[in-house]
Specification:
The protein is built from ten helices and two strands; from the N terminus they run αβαααααααααβ. It is mainly α. The protein has one domain. Helix 4 packs across helix 5, helix 5 packs across helix 6 and helix 5 packs antiparallel against helix 7.
């Protein structure tokens, strides 16, 4: 018998670390599981199933999250900085909502703010770590691009041509290749940044350890996440066509899909 189970309709007041203990047949795998390429489709399917079970509350949660982010972002000078710390906290709240629904518990707007509980400090610190990590990666990408462009210009000069002609000679194909390389690098990193808050709030993992575990899970399933993002681009186009109304569905589905990804990669049954 599960000591953390609640009767239908009963409010859940236990702290997240107690409320979200794995059941007897589930094991948290910090080393991350490798999954098949088809999992990318399965995650979206499970995300849609989660959405259609409670569409109203999920639309409300995602819209409120976006509105708060936009309003805070309008604060001069400080808005973007504040959102760096708030983003992981609110995302953790959405993951708590996903976990609650999976366990058959009621999901409410208050779930969005549950990340401010005992894990709030760790989640805010993770936001700071994520910012530092993105800055380092951005610098590396800029250096690589600068070296590529500079090399092309220098080669053109030695060949007796003008540097600008050499740069034009790089062509659309080269630029497309640079974009592809950047996407291949950033997609798993971005997914790792999303895994961090989930691991912190559901498993009490320390921020730096959550970053390492997130990277491990993302790079172990690199090609799966590339497909996941390609599917996202397709869905985003269709969601945008009807004057962005499709995002009222796609937004919540993305939350559920990511939760499904976390479950398959970090939970062994």
């Amino acid at each position: 018998m599960n000591p953390y189970a609640t009767e239908p309709g009963q409010s859940n007041s236990l702290p997240p670390s107690e409320r979200l203990e794995q059941s007897d047949n589930e094991i948290f795998n910090p080393d991350a599981n490798s999954v098949s390429l088809g999992s990318a489709f399965t995650w979206y399917s499970k995300g849609f199933d989660q959405f259609k079970a409670s569409p109203g509350i999920w639309i409300g949660l995602v819209v409120l999250f976006i509105v708060i982010t936009l309003v805070v972002g309008m604060i001069p000078f400080l808005g973007s900085i504040i959102n760096i710390f708030l983003g992981p906290i609110f995302f953790a709240g959405l993951m708590l909502a996903c976990e609650a629904q999976r366990r058959g518990q009621a999901v409410g707007i208050d779930h969005l703010f549950q990340g401010f509980g005992k894990n709030g400090g760790a989640l805010a610190l993770f936001g700071l770590l994520s910012l530092a990590f993105y800055i380092v990666i951005g610098i590396v990408v800029l250096i690589v691009v600068a070296m590529s462009v500079g090399g092309a210009a220098i080669s053109g000069m030695f060949a007796g041509g003008h540097p600008s002609a050499a740069l034009l000679g790089m062509g659309i194909g080269t630029m497309a290749l640079c974009f592809l390389i950047a996407m291949l690098a950033f997609v798993p990193i971005m997914m790792a940044m999303w895994f961090g808050p989930t691991l912190i709030v559901l498993h009490d993992v320390a921020p730096f350890d959550a970053l390492k575990m997130g990277l491990r899970g993302a790079f172990k399933n690199w090609f799966v996440f590339i497909l996941y993002m390609l599917l996202y681009m397709i869905f985003a186009i269709f969601a945008t066509i009807p004057i962005f109304l499709g995002w009222f569905v796609l937004g919540p589905v993305l939350i559920g899909a990511f939760y499904a990804a976390y479950r398959e990669i970090y939970i062994t049954q």
